[in-house]
Amino acid sequence: MNRDERKPRRDVFKREQKAIRRILNDWDPIGVSNVEVDEGVAHPLEHEYDCLNHQLLSALHGGAGPETIGEFIRREMDEHFGLSVSAEEARSVADRLVGLVDDAPHPARTETNR
């Protein structure tokens, strides 16, 4: 695959990363989306959850469904962030994440675990 052929895939990847960031930041389980810093101006810490992006994208493109994604979110929130997240809350976020790649053509995606 040459450079020109990789560009569309790279663009899709970047869009999906931004979409994952937006979903996780909207959810904001640790409450940092509008932490006040620097003279009372709210600055979102938009990269706080980026440590999850690669694993989420890999799982989503590998065919993981909402249940698997929800379990991953719960485990990461507990082990990495030290937060307890309900299965229902994690599943709600997982449903939104799975929706990111459902409509896009990805040869590696399967219908398993949906």
Question: Can you tell me about this structure?
Answer:
The protein has 114 residues and is mostly helical. It has a single domain (3-102), classed as Endonuclease III, domain 1. Helices cover 56% and strands 4% of the residues. The chain contains four helices and two strands; from the N terminus they run αββααα. Strands 1-2 form a two-stranded antiparallel sheet. Strand 1 (36-37) and strand 2 form a beta hairpin. Helix 1 packs across helix 2 (53-61) and helix 3 packs across helix 4. The longest helix is centred in the N-terminal third of the chain and has 25 residues, at 3-27. It starts with a helix and ends in a 12-residue tail after the last helix. Mean pLDDT is 83; it is low at 105-114.
As for the number of domains, it is: 1
Please identify the structural class as seen in this structure.
mainly alpha
Secondary-structure element sequence? HEEHHH
Report the biggest beta sheet as strand number plus sense, adding barrel if it closes.
2 strands, antiparallel
Silhouette? globular
Q: What is the straight-line distance between the termini?
A: 31 Å
**Whole-number mean pLDDT:** 83
Number of helices: 4
Which fold name corresponds to the CATH topology?
Answer: Endonuclease III, domain 1
What is the percentage of strand-forming residues? under 5%
| Total number of strands | 2
CATH architecture: Orthogonal Bundle
Strand order of the largest sheet: 1-2
Unreliable spans are 105-114
Summarize the amount of helix as a percent range: 55-70%
Radius of gyration: 16 Å
**CATH class designation:** Mainly Alpha
